Each structure stands twice: as C-alpha cells, then as structure tokens.
Amino acid sequence: MEQLILTVILTSVPLIFAASGELIAERSGVLNLGVEGMMLMGAVSAFAIAMGTGSPILGMFAGAFAGALTAGIFAFFTLGLATNQVATGLALTIFGTGLSGLIGAPLVGHAIDGLPQIHIPMLSDIPILGMLLFQHDIMVYLAVIMVGLCAWVLNATRVGLIIRAVGDNHDSAHALGYSVLGVRLLAVMFGGMMAGLGGAYLPLVLTPHWAEGMTAGRGWIALALVVFASWRPWRVLGGALVFGGITIMQLAGQARGWTIPSQFLSMLPYLATIIVLVLISRNREFALANSPACLGRIFHAGK
Amino acid sequence: MKKFFTTMVAGAFAAVSGISAAVADPVKVGFVYLTNPGDHGWTYAHEVARLDVNKHFGDKVETTYVENVPEGPDAARVIRELARQGNEIIFTTSFGYMDPTLKVSKEFPDLKFEHITGYKRSGNMATGNIRFYEGRYVQGVVAGMMTKSNKIGYLASFPIPEVIQGINAFALGMRSVNPDAEMSIIWVNSWYDPVKEADAAKVHIAEGADILAQHTDSPAMLQTAEKAGVHGFGQSSDMKAFAPKAQLFSSVNNWAPYYISKIEQMMDGSWSTGDGPDHWAGNTWLGMADDYLVLTEFENMPADVKAAAEAAEAKIRGGYNIFTGPFSDNQGNVILKAGEAYHDGNLWNDMNYYVEGVNGKIPG
C-alpha cells in the first residue's frame, strides 16, 4: 500500500510544478495554454544537460531556464504585440512539441542516472511515514516549497497584492502606477520556469530517458488543475494528489481485478474538473472571489 | 501555335524522361509513419528497415517517408500525395491506415500498396504483418521459470486481436513451465505514454509482480524494473541500453526482409496481393523462422532458463503452432482439445477470451 501512495506522490510532482506556475500567470491575468510545450522544452533541455554534464541538478536548472525562455516567447507576442492569448498559447504548445522533438532527436535511445533520493536523517527512519515523506529526491521537496511560496506571496505580501490587482483590474492597477505588462511578464516567465521544472521531472526522475512528446498531455491536466483548485495554491497541491491518486487507483484496480472499466476511471480527473467548474459557476460570489477578472483580456495602456 | 509548341516540348521531355527511366531511374518507394522515428519503438523499427532497404538496393531504389501521420481519413491525403510523386510501391505502417490505403489504392490502380497489420485488400493492395506473439511465448517460458512470486505484471495498450494474441501466447508459454504462475493485465489505453507506463509498472511491482512484460512502446517499464531490481522484456527494438540488468531479452521487429522481398517482387513482376480462396493465407504474416521477429540475446537469467528459452525459440522456428490444444480459457471452458490447432483466421476472429493463467476479463 505504501508503495502505491509513494507512486501517487511521484506522479503528481510534474502537475504540482506546472499547475502552480500557471496559477501565478493566471492570477496576473494571463491565460497561457502553452504549458505542454513549455514542459516539453523543460524536459528536453533537462535531459540534454544532465546527459552532457552528468549532473541531473544542472539538468534541473536547465529545465527551469528553458521553460522560462519559452514562456518569454509567449510574453513577447501576447504582452509585447498584444496577440490573442488563447491562439498564442496553443501555438506555443505546438511550437514547443516540435522544437523539443528536433532538439531531442540525437538524444533518443540514451539513458541517464536520475536525481538521487535524499534521506533526511532521523526522520527518514520513521516507519512508513519516513518512506512516504522523507526519502525523496530534491524536486519533491522543492515542489512543496514552491507551492508554499506561491501561497505566501499571493496572500501575505505586497508583491502578491500587486499580482492580484493586475489580474483583477488591469486598468485600475495601471492608474495606480503599476506596470501591468512588467508584472505580467514576470508572472508568465515564472509560470514557464515552473512548467519547465515540471517537465524536467520526467526525464530526471520518472522515466530517465528522452522521448518525443513524453509529457503525453500532462500540460493540459495542469491547466485543468488550476481551475479545479479555483486559483488557490494549496488546493493545487491537493488537486494534483487527487488526480495522481485517481490515475494510480485505476491502474491498481486493474491489477487487482476490479470490474470498473479502466476507460471510465481514466476519465475521472476530467470529470472532476467539469464538476468543479459547474459548482464554481453556480456560486457567483465564489467565482468572483477567486477567478482573476481580467483573465485572458488584453491590456492597452492608452485606454 | 504557341500551344502546339509547348505540347511538342512537353512531349519531347516526356520521351526523354521515359528513356532515362528505362535506363537508370530508381524505383521510388514511399513509407507512411505513425509517429516520429524518435519513439524508439514501433516507428523506429520501420525506419531502421527503410535504411536497410536503401543499403540493400543502393541506387536502384529511392525511398521517401512521411512521419507523424494521424490515423484515419486524413491519412488518405498523405498517401495520395506519395502516389502522385511517383512512388511505385507505398507501405503504410499502422492499422488505422487500412481504409485510407484501400481508398487510394483504387484511385491509382497502376501503383502497388502494402498495408501493415490490417486485413483488407484490393486488386493492388496487399497486407503484411509480423507474428509478434511468437516472441511472447518465449517470454512466457522465461517468465514462468524466473518468477519467485508467481506473479507476472503485463502492460497492454488496447484490446485488439494483436494484443490479445500476445497475452495468450505469453500465458501458454508461462503455463507450459509453471502451472502456478499468474498474469495480471493493466490496460494503459495508450501505445505511448512513458509516465503512465512507468506508473503501471510500479503498481505491478507494488502488487508483488517480479517479472514485467509490455505491449506498449516506450522503455519506461524496463527503466522502472531496473530501478526496482526486477526483470522484464523489451518491445519492438532492443532496449538493453535502458535496463542493462533488468532486460531478459527484447523481441525486435525486423521489417527489412519484408520490405526488400516485396520491392524485389515488384521489380521482377512477381508481386501479388496474395488474394485467394483463403483470405488469411494471403496475408504475408511471418515470424521468427523467417527473421521477421528477432529475439535479442538472452541475458540476466540462469543457464537452465536460458536453455529453455533457446529450446522454445528453436521449437517455434521449427514450425510449432503455439495455439495448439489442449487449452482452456480462464473461466475453465475448453477452447481446443488435444490435437486441435488454430489457423490464422481463428486468431483474428475467435480469440475473445484470456487463456488459463491470466487474471480478469478483456475490457469492453
């Protein structure tokens, strides 16, 4: 049983990174549908650097950097040239998928040693809990720290207040003298960095090789998770574990001979997202309280 | 007058190119790929074979491929384009290209089409396949002898005949050496999703499986096995580089002899669609005996297991029909009595059950 829970935790990590990064971008009012593309760019860069230098840690930084850089392209078009965010985001996913495949072509067929596990002294010796919580690779701890950081910054700091102001009413934020585009640029690049880290987790830990399109749709699940979590960081963490849990449960159910069709269980995470969307939209106040009012809207300083 | 002149020029060009075609123009061969050769699985194996075709024929053949072609109606556009470019024989390398290939084959009756893994043919469209399940029987023998927990974990993609044949062949091999071993199947509902394949492998291991097998395309399962210290088998191409301690062997798809023989037949005029009174006999469906399916070196196993694997391989190479009775399905119904055997049509049409030794039910 604890092995299964461990698998749930590990399979959730890419989702936690990518979704909490996207959450920050969306709270600043930018909808970036390019998460899948940014994850793939992060994954291929992480693998290339880890393979070339022999250091998975350097690979992790490369993944973060590549994700942020890819997000920079998105920012250039949507913020600099005021293009449609939905169309640009979709284009970014297609672009990232293609470019990562091109960069990764010579990397196919190689394997690396992934990130090592870190056993926290004393704590990792606790039965069961020690294995579940204190024997992970560095990125698992980093994921939790980043979620905490996002929550703290958003809810308890001036920076968070500015991000939310820009996302909720960019005209007022502009009138108060804040640089709407500057804040959004940083938020989008942060989102890209986190997506890059999420992508990097695949070739650095989960499946230590590169293969084209290896994220297989996890970027889209991350996007759904942000809505599922109603734009709250800690709910992203919980939601990612629920999504991961459902995935593993349906696999384990098959191994144990449950009679629920696996197709139905594969569908559950998406069904859950739709249900959450329905519940949110039923309660207007709740929806207004959480979803950024300017999400997806283009900002023109002149108006 | 001007029109007459252009016609003359065009005619002259046609005559010249016609002559040069008779002298040295290479035969053009087209390939349609499902994914990118970078998948290191199914399409990669086709790409390796295409390069072998180039090597074998040299200047006499010119090959072209189109990658990442989605299955379904859209594929017809790509196949038609290859036909227009003058490819004389076109190989479409995935099941979902069956109807599009059929359609285009009727539009170009002078060209030849070869569809991989399907069952529909026309006057100029043939079918070809590899008996993948033969390798899985040998895997079953090795797994049955190696397992200590008597639990085998199997990753499956979609419940289509090819995959069911593989599961049942594996189980028959396993039960031929170990009547207590059992297989459980996890359907990943994808050919290719490395993280999900790795997750499913971890679940199998957590449930006690100590040997893993896969009918999905990525090396993720073997990497997981390597990390967990259990063993498994690779698929489509040799996956040793990913799991040097865990891989027992890989069943490698070797399409080169198929491609080369079909192109040679086209050149010497002996090419046919294989259609006859027995539809299934017309399918070019060969396996280990003809090196269409090649097993990599048997490794990471004791000598007696290796000997048994070699014996099973030799038996199949010698023409042994794996689906020979007696065997029953996993509900206890007798499928074949001693002395009875399946022919190819049965494998496609009648195998809608798991044999003894497999847990659960076929989904859907």
Structural descriptors:
heterodimer, A: 303 residues, mainly alpha, 73% helix, B: 364 residues, alpha/beta, Rossmann fold, six-stranded parallel beta sheet, six-stranded mixed beta sheet, 11 helices, 14 strands, disordered N terminus
How would you describe what is shown here?
The complex is a heterodimer of chains A (303) and B (364). Chain A contains 13 helices and no strands. The longest helix of chain A has 27 residues, at 180-206. Chain A has helices spanning 2-27, 35-53, 56-80, 85-104, 129-133, 138-156, 158-168, 170-175, 180-206, 218-228, 233-255, 262-282, 284-290. Chain A has a single domain (2-106, 123-290), classed as ABC transporter involved in vitamin B12 uptake, BtuC. With 303 residues, chain A is mainly alpha-helical. The model of chain A has no long low-confidence stretch (mean pLDDT 89). Chain A starts with a helix and ends in a 13-residue tail after the last helix. In chain A, 73% of the residues lie in helices and 0% in strands. The relative contact order of chain A is 0.20. Chain B has 364 residues and is an alpha/beta fold. Chain B has 2 domains: 24-130 and 255-288, Rossmann fold (3-Layer(aba) Sandwich), CATH 3.40.50.2300; 132-252 and 292-349, 3-Layer(aba) Sandwich (Rossmann fold). Chain B has 11 helices and 14 strands. In chain B, the strands form 3 sheets. In chain B, strands 2-1-3-4-5-11 form a 6-stranded parallel β-sheet, sandwiched between helices. Chain B has a 6-stranded mixed β-sheet with strand order 7-6-8-9-10-12, sandwiched between helices. In chain B, α8 (220-228) links the parallel β8 and β9 (231-236). In chain B, α2 crosses α9, α3 runs parallel beside α4 (98-107) and α7 runs parallel beside α8 (220-228). The radius of gyration of chain B is 23 Å and the shape is globular.
